[in-house]
Amino acid sequence: MVDILHRIGVTSTPDSVYTALTTISGLSGWWTEDTDGSGDVGEVIRFRFRGAPAPGGFDMKVLEAEPAELVLWEVVDGPAEWIGTQVRFELKQEDDYTIVLFRHGGWKEPGEFMHHCSTKWATFLMSLKKLVETGEGEPAPHDVRISNWH
């Protein structure tokens, strides 16, 4: 198994970052505008991307949500490579920054699609940073296009 790992610092509180990771308005402000569901533990959040190949998005079951500390999802629907993987956001305060330790773990192999997803996660994590710091992120469909895969 292999993982995608990223680390960003956000000049805001862990509570603000947590809100952006657990509310539909927060998630649609940095990842994709087409987001619905519930960020409560045990519930499913549906993320859709216009123009993306079928199935056109991901369904994430919320496994854990510890305020200002941790958000953990399991992919329950989406591309075959994603199903069963887990997306984890660990939050911690360091000086004026909230550090976000990101892990998309459990990939079976590091294929080309994983390379693409790693780059896209990086762009969306920068969108999360921008949303929390300025009030305006760059969610899909306003995100950086890196290839014909979006």
Give me some keywords for this one.
150 residues; alpha+beta; Alpha-D-Glucose-1,6-Bisphosphate, Chain A, domain 4; 7-stranded antiparallel β-sheet; globular
What is the fold's blueprint, element by element?
Layout: E1 2-10, H1 14-22, H2 24-30, E2 34-37, E3 44-48, E4 57-66, E5 70-77, E6 86-94, E7 97-107, H3 112-134
Antiparallel strand pairs: 1-7, 2-3, 3-4, 4-5, 5-6, 6-7
Assess the beta-strand content as a share of residues: 35-45%
CATH class: Alpha Beta
What is the strand arrangement across the widest sheet? Answer: 1-7-6-5-4-3-2
Number of strands: 7
CATH architecture: 2-Layer Sandwich
Which fold name fills CATH's third level, the topology?
Alpha-D-Glucose-1,6-Bisphosphate, Chain A, domain 4
For the biggest sheet, the summary is: 7 strands, antiparallel
Termini separation (Å)? 25 Å
Q: What is the CA-based Rg, rounded?
A: 14 Å
Overall average pLDDT: 95
How many H/I helices?
Answer: 3
Approximately how much helix is present in the residues? 25-40%
Note poorly predicted spans. none
- Assign the CATH superfamily: START domain
Q: Assign an overall shape.
A: globular
- How many separate domains make up the residues? 1
